[in-house]
Amino acid sequence: QVRLVESGGGLVQPGDSVLLSCAASGASLSDYIVAWFRQTPGKAREFVGICNRSGSYCVYEDSVKGRFTISREDTKNMAWLQMSALAPEDTAVYFCAVRVAFLNVRAESGYHAWGQGTQVTVSS
Predict the structure, then answer these.
(1) What are residue 92's DSSP bridge partners?
(2) pLDDT class of 8 with cuts at 50, 70, 90
(3) Beta bridge partners of 118
(4) d(CA 22, CA 5)
(5) Residue 29, phi-psi category: left (phi > 0), alpha (psi -120 to 50), beta (remainder)
(6) Does residue 50 contact residue 36 with C-beta atoms inside 8 Å?
(7) CB count, 10 Å around CB of 22?
(8) Which of 43, 71, 96, 124 sits at a 20 to 30 Å CA gap from 18?
C-alpha cells in the first residue's frame, strides 16, 4: 500500500515560487502516475495537473498552465509540484495522489492513495 506525504507549503507573497514535494513509501512510485489536486474551504478538491510516468505528456488545469510544473524522480520515490507566479487564488491545501491508469484523471475516483495535504497561502 503506497503512502504519500506532501511538504513544502507555507505562507508566500504574490509572485513568489514554491516547490511542493510528495514523498512515497510502501511501494515504488514507478508503478504509479502522480497527480496534484488542491482544495479550499467549502469547495470540492480541484484537479491541478498530472503527468504520465515518463513525464512526456502532462495535463494541467487551465489556470495553472505555464506557471505550475510536475516532475518526479522514481529512484528517490519523490514527485514535485513547482509553482511560480503565485496569486492569492492559488491559496489552498495541495494534495498529491497516485493512480495506475491515465484515464479520467480529473476525477477523484480512480486514485489509489492520497497524501494528507500541505497548505499554501498566498498573501501580501
Answers:
(1) 120
(2) very high
(3) 94
(4) 5
(5) alpha
(6) yes
(7) 27
(8) 43
Q: What is the pLDDT of residues 90-102, one digit of tens each?
A: 999 999 999 999 9
Q: Give CA separation, 88 vs 31, 119, 120, in Å.
A: 35, 13, 10
Closest-CA residue to 18 (of 95, 92, 82): 82
Read off the pLDDT of residues 39-89 as tens digits, 9 standing for 90 and up.
999 999 999 999 999 889 999 999 999 999 999 999 999 999 999 999 999
Q: What share of the chain is helix, strand, coil (3-state, %, to 5)?
A: 10, 50, 45
CB-CB contact of 25 with 77 (8 Å) = yes
* Grid cell locating 110: 480512480
Q: How far apart are CA 117 and CA 124, in angstroms?
A: 23
